Amino acid sequence: MLFLFTILIVTCCGETAYLKTFNQGWYAENALRNLDSAIKLYNEVAESAGQAGDDEMESKAFLRIGLCYERLQKKDDALRAYQKALRLKKEDLKSFDAALAKLGSPAGQLINLDEFLSQLPEEIQKNICDHFYTRAETIQNEAPEQAIQIYRRAVQVSKFLKQHERAGFALSFIGDLFRRQGRFRDALKTYKEVETQFDKETAVLAWNYIRIAETFRLLNQPEDARKAYAALQDERFARQVPPRLWSQLWLGDTCRVMNDLVNAKKTWSEMIQEDTLPERIAKMLTTGEHAIFSQEPEDPFANDVAYFIAVREAMAGNSEAAAESYKQCVRLSQGFDWPRQLAEQELKK
Q1: Separation CA 81–CA 90 (nearest Å)
Q2: Would residue 95 count as lying in a domain?
Q3: Confidence label for 173 from pLDDT (cuts 50, 70 and 90)
Q4: Per-residue model confidence (pLDDT) at position 11
Q5: Which one of 20, 40, 103, 185 is at 20 to 30 Å from 176 when CA atoms are compared?
Q6: d(Cα 242, Cα 119) in Å, to the nearest integer?
Q7: pLDDT range class, residue 293, cuts 50, 70, 90
């Protein structure tokens, strides 16, 4: 599943027109993934905010423009947008350029990162951090090893900025990249580092337990996977509702592959209380009824739905229909999203 970070822009009664346009730009960038449209909207924001003397919003708009250009591989345009966002003097711009060059190069591995960042304005520090996350996300499918190194720098910068939850998720992403390459032991080692370094970040830990369980599934160690999924039912994670629901859904599936269909259906039936997607899937699995779900490629959970439709068909003895749904799961997966690798394993059986 594709795990999404969302920034909520809270508006009030006196919402300005350009703040509404900023929200439209954010939606175009992150939901529609239409970067050209987002850039156009953010430019409108920058112009209106500049005329209104709202430096903070104008800077935010230019920052988002820079991030969009990064994803479009237009580095010069991105840098110009960053420079406008920072509103710095010439000597500060040199520092910003030097920061990106040093931290993004092999030589950057040799510097004292905390000492280097401490010499820069906070806004530059934050933009460097965003730069690394964007860069790693952009190249992770084509160059996973390079992305791993960039994510490591992102973790370091996030720690420096005391953005511990963000750092924890970035370290988890490194584990995900190991797993995509079939380096399951390296992935588990990295997830263990997450547990050790970010033991107070319950949101990070909740999704991290799911990642651990998924890795054990791929290693064909269902009992270890079951324990990892079950850990999320601890009261400590009571407020982490989405990962708890998904873990319970996958816990039932793990019981199924252990040939414990009674506990699988019991686990699924216990979670049917509301109308969330995991609960709707659980209802489908316990009743065997057909249900209508979105299976558009843009839906980040479409591949999960396809997988569990395959499970339903497999439990009903419809092996050919199950195989088609496993294939659909692979087709709908964005990159190497879970459970693509699990579906591929099922297709090889």
Answers
A1: 15
A2: no
A3: very high
A4: 39
A5: 103
A6: 40
A7: low
As a whole number of angstroms, the distance between CA 322 and CA 320 comes to 5
Q: Residue 140 corresponds to which amino acid?
A: Q
Quote the CA–CA distance of 6 and 29 in Å, as a whole number: 12
Domain region containing 20:
15-87
pLDDT of residue 107: 42
Residue 198 lies in a domain: no
* Distance in angstroms (rounded) separating the CA atoms of residues 307 and 214: 14
DSSP 165-182: HHHHHHHHHHHHHHHHTT
CA distance 273 to 181: 38
Sequence-distant (≥ 6) Cβ neighbours of residue 226 within 8 angstroms: 213, 251, 254, 255, 258
State the average pLDDT over residues 170-192: 97
58 falls within a domain: yes
As a whole number, the mean pLDDT across the chain is 84
> How far is it, in rounded angstroms, from Cα 210 to Cα 342?
14
- Top-confidence range, 46-60, 106-120, 197-211: 197-211
CATH number at 23 reads 1.25.40
In whole angstroms, give the CA distance from residue 322 to residue 241: 29
Residue 314 backbone zone (phi > 0: left; psi -120 to 50: alpha; other: beta): alpha
- CA distance linking residue 48 with residue 52, whole number of Å: 6
Token pair 């900025």 is found at 161
77 is a domain residue: yes
- Report the domain count for the chain: 1
Distance (Å, whole) CA 285 – CA 271: 12
Amino acid at 191: Y
Q: What is the pTM of this model?
A: 0.69
Distances (CA, A) of 54 to 47, 63, 311: 10, 14, 54
Exposed, middle or buried: residue 291 (CB in 10 Å: 0-12, 13-18, 19+)? Answer: middle
User: In this predicted structure, what is the pLDDT of residue 284?
Assistant: 94
Percent of the chain at pLDDT exceeding 90: 55
List, as one string, the DSSP characters of 128-147. Answer: HHHHHHHHHHHHTTT-HHHH
Rounded to whole angstroms, the Cα distance separating 257 from 115 reads 51
- Judge whether 213 and 200 are in contact, CB under 8 Å: no
